[in-house]
Design brief:
heterodimer; A: 424 residues; alpha+beta; Sulfite Oxidase, Chain A, domain 2; Immunoglobulin-like; 8 helices; 14% helix; B: alpha+beta; two-stranded antiparallel sheet; sulfite dehydrogenase activity (chain A); sulfite oxidase activity (chain A); oxidoreductase (chain A); Sulfite dehydrogenase (chain A)
Chain lengths: 424, 204
């Protein structure tokens, strides 16, 4: 072990591989003949065991260990015309559990991050309501609140993979997703405050940034489980996630989760805005496109091993882990295959199982060092089963852009390196 | 006067609603009174838009193509533009007015947006006269070619979902599984040493 491979794409991957290879080398040396007395990391007094560390005044807002410097959002410059209307990716390969750290949640902006002082923030409700209203931040924080854990997945997550294997790492193929606990006011509460008229059937949500993002949402959904959120994972929203206020539309495509939310308009028909006509419509092979494809379907991915998280420890016990989620509710089961889908074993779900949230799964195996073709297949509480890419392509062709929830395959080679592949 | 259950917030004034509520629907609801012609639109487009979208809406670099592409929606690589793909003219007016030019949104007045919209119709051969004037009066007469090109979400009727059958657990494929495609062959994943890779596809 410990051999690096220059053919490996991805600097993150290479660095991560070398770091783990070095660590593995030290461990080997420690148990080898060079130090008959024992591992010098144990037998010799280490600096951190002798000298003082930072005081409590060193980091008023703490950051991860410097040794985790590779666990960062990454972007793919060729995907978009510029970095302002663009996307970056959550480092799923390096995370565990179901909660995404705030600083690692992927970003998707259409006109950059708006910077808004909460004192300048206003939310308007207008349209088919009894009383058009304006709220301040202070007003919003006086309404009864809810705390809910939800995944937010970009409709275009895995969209670059419709035609085949392209990006080498689950950060890039599946990292337009995050999952945090939101604190906010039910949208229903705010709409009731304005008084929705019986003719109201749709809601337009609008952002305050320079893209003035707008989406039409069926009023039924708005009155069901949507949240007007001002906190994520216990602290204020991050600027790039809509500070000070964003909309949460649980289980539905991320584009609808309007950030820097400034206006909610009740109407009797959808508005056919740019983001629900030109974009976020799904072209089929016959030239007809689906619109209003709101739901994010049942999906999963193995996050480790994966191209950025190769196997560096050799044969023996191996933890296969990943994430599963469904816009329809909870995940009831995840099956894992190590032979490209010929045979499956049901994995173990661990941690909270919450509706419309990420679920963590594990399959613990003994790896004999032979090549593996890893796949995961999720089922949700409604009985929907994650399809293969070929099944989706048979139904839709390859130009849908959005809503690719197909089964991912990773090839684990005998040297432990992992690659994004397609199999038949 | 009190409102709602909590009586929080205050009534929005008419001026406030007018300032923010500028959305336009396919039936024309929300269109302001005004007009503009394609000739003026060409000049405005050249000044405010062509640097990214090209002189004729053909797009520069990876910036969006606004014109052309008619008849390509069943091609291997469709060209989706206002003329080939967008269903409604209202979206053009609304989006240009709310979000363009990129980096200087809301800089165009209502008549400017009518003029640019008229020019975009001309670039897409939806109107043929270069002095075509678009206004709130004749807006509803214009229909884009792909208006009927959309249908509701029927994903759950696709066979892979509709079945909801218990999935196969063992010996699900005959013979060994073959690898058909590899990401490393394309080699377009960003690398710390080299950000120059270019793959196919894009994020819209």
């Amino acid at each position: 072990m410990g051999k690096t491979d220059d053919r490996r794409p991805g600097g993150a991957t290479r660095r991560a591989f070398m770091t783990s290879a070095l660590a593995g080398g030290a461990a080997l040396a420690a148990t080898g003949r060079s130090w008959a007395e024992g591992d010098p990391l144990i037998t010799e007094i280490q600096d951190w065991n002798r000298y003082l560390g930072d005081g409590v005044d060193a980091a008023p807002y703490g950051m991860p260990s410097a040794f985790e410097a590779d666990v960062i959002r990454r972007d793919v410059p060729w995907l978009t015309a510029d970095p302002v209307s663009s996307v970056n990716f959550t480092p799923l390969h390096a995370l565990d559990g179901i909660i995404t750290p705030n600083g690692l949640c992927f970003e998707r902006h259409h006109a950059g991050t708006a910077l808004i002082d909460p004192a300048d923030y206003r939310l308007m409700i207008n349209g088919l309501v009894d009383t058009p209203l304006v709220f301040t931040m202070s007003d919003l924080k006086r309404f009864p609140r809810e705390n809910r854990v939800y995944f937010l997945e970009c409709a275009a997550n895995s969209g670059m993979e419709w035609r085949g294997s392209q990006l080498n790492g689950c950060q890039f193929t599946h990292g337009m997703v995050h999952c945090v606990m939101y604190t906010g006011v039910p949208l229903r509460t705010l709409l009731q405050e304005a008084g929705v008229r019986t003719s109201g059937k749709w809601l337009l949500a609008e952002g305050a940034d320079a893209s003035a993002m707008t989406r039409s949402i069926p009023l039924e959904k708005a009155l069901d489980d949507c949240l007007v959120a001002f906190a994520m994972n216990g602290e204020a929203l991050r600027p790039e996630q809509g500070y000070p206020v964003r909309l949460c539309v649980p289980g539905w495509e991320g584009n609808m989760w309007v950030k820097w939310l400034r206006r909610l308009e009740v109407g009797d028909k959808p508005w056919a805005q740019r983001e629900e006509t030109s974009k976020y419509t799904d072209l089929l092979e016959n030239g007809i496109a689906r619109r209003h494809t709101f739901l994010m379907d049942v999906k999963s991915v193995i996050t480790s091993p994966s191209p950025q998280a190769p196997v560096t420890h050799g044969k023996g016990p191996l933890v296969i882990t990943g994430l599963a989620w469904s816009g329809s509710g909870t995940i009831s089961r995840v099956d894992v295959s190590i032979d490209g889908g010929r045979n499956w074993k049901t994995a173990r779900l661990d941690g909270p199982s919450l509706p419309k949230a990420l679920h963590r799964f594990y399959l613990d195996i003994e790896w004999d060092g032979s090549e593996l073709l890893l796949q995961s297949r999720a089922m949700d509480e409604k009985g929907y089963i994650q399809p293969t890419k070929d099944e989706l392509r048979a139904a839709r062709g390859v130009n849908s852009i959005y809503h690719n929830n197909s089964i991912q395959t990773w090839q684990v080679r005998q040297d432990g390196e992992v690659e994004n592949v397609e199999v038949s | 006067p009190p409102h709602g259950t909590y009586n929080l917030g205050r009534r929005a004034t008419d001026a406030e609603v007018a300032a923010w509520d500028i959305d336009v629907r396919p039936d024309g609801t929300g269109l302001p009174v005004g007009q503009g012609n394609a000739i003026d639109g060409e000049a405005l487009f050249t000044e405010h838009c062509a640097a990214c979208h090209g002189d004729f809406g053909e797009g520069t670099g990876r910036w969006p193509v606004l014109a052309g592409g008619q008849g390509t929606l069943t091609n291997d690589r469709p060209v989706k533009t206002i003329g080939s793909y967008w269903p409604y003219l209202s979206t053009v007016y609304d989006y240009v007015r709310r979000a363009m030019p990129f980096g200087n949104a809301r800089a165009l007045n209502n008549d400017d947006v009518y003029a640019i919209t008229a020019y975009l119709l001309y670039l897409n051969d939806v109107v043929t006269e270069d002095d075509f004037t678009l206004s709130n009066e004749n807006f509803g007469d214009i229909h884009l070619p792909n208006e009927d090109g959309f249908k509701p979400d029927d994903r759950l009727e696709e066979p892979e979902y509709a079945g909801k059958a218990e999935p196969c657990m063992s010996e699900c494929k005959r013979g060994p599984v073959k690898v058909d495609m590899r990401a490393a062959v394309l080699d377009v994943t960003p690398d710390a040493d080299n950000g120059e890779e270019v793959g196919s596809g894009s994020v819209d």
